[in-house]
Amino acid sequence: MNLVLRPNKHSYSAAEAAKALGTSVSQLEAVLDEHIFNDGIPRPAQLELQASDLLLIAYWLETVEVPEGKVLSMPRRVGE
Question: What is the DSSP string of 52-78?
Fold first, then answer.
């Protein structure tokens, strides 16, 4: 995960967050809609995200969905 944040910055707009995360604003909004704004409350027009929000969103962007019934094999440990 290569998350680049500006020091002393307290909040990020959607465009700034997408740039820091290395993704598009539309992909960022899709992830937010899937994980946060999924209970009927619409996503605000103007988002203000904090550095901790970006860390969690970065995790969600990198999460690989495993198809149902498939097994995800773990990587081998060093020395095996």
Answer: HHHHHHHHHHHPPPPPTT--PPPPPPT
